[in-house]
Amino acid sequence: MRATVTKIGNSTGVILPKAAAERLKVKQGDVVYLTETPTGYAVTPYDPEFAEQMEAARRGMSEYKNALRELAK
């Protein structure tokens, strides 16, 4: 599916086709996540539970960064 990048005020935005917005179950004003993947980017609807889990993961990775770095060797 194709989307258009456009200027919105002083920002840059992406206009989602109606079919994409319906499939994502998002509407004007909703928050979405833009996630980098090996093949590009993925757009997913905001999920408060997921956001909470990601914040917990970030805290854990920050707290245990030295151990994680050693494990990655």
UniProtKB/TrEMBL annotation:
A GO term for molecular function: DNA binding
Pfam families per the UniProt record, alphabetical: MazE_antitoxin (PF04014)
InterPro entries: Doc_partner (IPR013432), SpoVT-AbrB_dom (IPR007159), SpoVT-AbrB_sf (IPR037914)
Ranges of residues in domain SpoVT-AbrB: 6-51
Keywords of this entry: DNA-binding
Protein name per its UniProtKB record: AbrB/MazE/SpoVT family DNA-binding domain-containing protein
Organism lineage: Bacteria, Pseudomonadati, Chlorobiota, Chlorobiia, Chlorobiales
